[in-house]
Input
Amino acid sequence: MKKRILLAAASGLFMVAAHPPVGLGLLAWVGLVPLLFSLEGAGKRAGFLIGLVCGSLFFVGDVYWVVNSMYYYGGVPIWISVPVMLGLAALLACYIAFFGLFVVSVSGASSMVRLIAIAAAWTSLEYLRGHLFTGFPWSLLAYTQMDWAAIIQIADITGVWGISFLVVMVNVALYLCVRFLLLKAKGRQGRWPVVESAVTVAALLAVFVYGTVRIRQVDIDSANWQKVRVAAVQGAIDQSKKWDTAFRARTVDIYRELTRLAAAGGAQLVVWPETAVPFFLGQDKAQTGPVLDAASSTKVYLLTGSPAYTYNLEARQVDLYNSAWLINPAGELAGRYDKTHLVPFGEYVPLRAFMPFIKKLTAGIGDFSEGPGPLPIRSELGDMGVLICYEAIFPEIASGHVRGGAGILVNITNDAWFGRSSAPYQHLGMTVLRAVENRTWLVRSANTGFSAVVDPTGRVVKQTVLFEKAVITADVGLRSGPLTFYTRFTDIFAYVCMALTAAFVFALLRGRKRKKSAA
Output
């Protein structure tokens, strides 16, 4: 069992290294091979535990920044922050534990069946992780490939799920090949997995060729799109001062100064980060005036984050929103989007009465309400789909905006909570795939970084550094033409994987029932 645990641990560490900031994406293609060997010949209970070990190491290494957010920036005691992070990692590890159980369960199937079944099961579990209990699709296997342009282009058909499937498929094929060689070296009989290897190589080549051709095609098509000069500004506002009422005017002044620089560079649209305006925009004329003037004095469209509220007459309560406001060049509020997918234990607090310490993470704001859905903000400049912070990791929200007519995606976020951890690198990497899936330009404005401009093939054409004031400007195209397959039909590939996985599970259960009946 010790050897199995070591192999599982190796896979967990390989997956950490494959994701940003280390970003050794090639490791992802071999990183699961040790786990597959550790599961060989194991019982179902052992398979679950082995998967749990692998998953625990991976997710502790991947989401350790939760402690950063809670302890250093939220003021939550370390003796609470660490257990919360470990609890989250353990919950996420359960998905890989069930993967281990599934791999053990299909060990008696043919190599070809295992090749497809194991890849489908991994993909299904990633999809479920992104949707169950509000969803947390952080650091999916696909995101390890953000730097491999030809590989990620398939996302405009399959979404991230097709990339994860391919990576796992290659891991399984390599495992089968190495297993054959080890058996041969020991003088034991085995079958060289010729068909399985051929199918995997064919799939890999098909994706590579598709990606190479698609990049050229998208570059040609997007060159004809209507261009808008957009600037993303990064204020680098210290999180400890962000909600300090004494610092509000200074915060606005910093963004006004950066806006003037952007306008001098020819920007038509200037994007400020999430809650860049640390008060209720439009409610206090004295505070709102300088923000509106930032647009009118420079004659630009200004998109900024700000909290908002409405009075709910039916419920007789005030509903708070994490919002994005569009201000036109006349200095008028011209549109608003309310964040749809809120962060649990960050923007709304389940069981707040039983966990009062969590209030520190939402200091100055309180519980938010959900917006009505992914509705683009309309403007004469072009329609824009806004992704506020964490929404950028949910593919269905971005595709919903584009189906609704958005010609550009804009991600505004405040990643100051993460500090100098791996999270800002991971968050940016996940955002890149939203541009590819929908073949849109994506502009990202982050308070402390990374702010970036991403083209429709996933190239990060401009990017800031962390914790420095900056302005980045680029000419971006407003998408036109037919929607991508993924935008139109979203997660069809994931549904197929889940159907296959369910069919395999059903076959396994039916086989066990027959064996019991025969006995």
Notes: The first strand starts at residue 226 and ends at 234. The chain has a mean pLDDT of 92. The radius of gyration is 24 Å. Residues 2-220+497-518 form one domain.
